Amino acid sequence: MIIYLVRHAKAGHRGDDLAMDRHRHLSPSGLAQAEEIAGYFLANPVERILSSPYARCVETVAPAAAELGLEVEASESLAEETTMSRLHALLDELVAQDAAVALCSHGNVIPAALDLLGKFSPEALACAKGSVTRLDTRSGSLEYMTFSG
Fold it and tell me: Are 61 and 6 in contact (CB under 8 A)?
């Protein structure tokens, strides 16, 4: 199985109202990153795209979903405030399905997902905005790339 862990692209500044943070949209450079990520997924197609329900995450993978004819599946298990047990349950479900899948989430969730999957990567732990970490769960290979927008 191939899992692509996508850190959301660049977004506007986080304000003081955390309740409104779910609605923060991508910046112009973030929109450009999302288009580059879509191009990446044209060359590396997936069968499913799941995303944190936060606007910036959905917007990051929406162009890829459109190009591949897929829906973006919003999942609270990928939200910024998810619990390890929710994230673990989602990863277990996906690994059992053995399909290529992209997961778009946040800078605190992606390193946790890699940890749960038994992988460590200093680059992926840094988890730059607009980055993709590709994990082949069969071979254990890990690749990390960033998109500048």
Answer: yes
User: In angstroms, rounded to a whole number, what is the distance separating the alpha carbons of residues 90 and 85?
Assistant: 9
Give the chain's domain count: 1
| pLDDT per residue as tens, the chain (149 positions) | 999 999 999 998 776 555 667 899 999 999 999 999 999 999 999 999 999 999 999 999 999 999 999 999 999 999 999 999 999 999 999 999 989 999 999 999 999 999 898 886 676 677 899 999 999 988 888 898 999 87
d(CA 11, CA 63) in angstroms, rounded, equals: 16
Gap between the Cα atoms of 98 and 96, Å rounded: 5
How far apart are alpha carbons 64 and 40 in whole angstroms? 8
Beta bridge partners of 135: 3, 142
DSSP 80: T
The domain of 58 spans: 2-146
Kindly give, in sequence order, each residue whose CB lies less than 8 Å from that of residue 57, ignoring residues fewer than 6 positions away: 8, 51, 78, 104, 105, 106
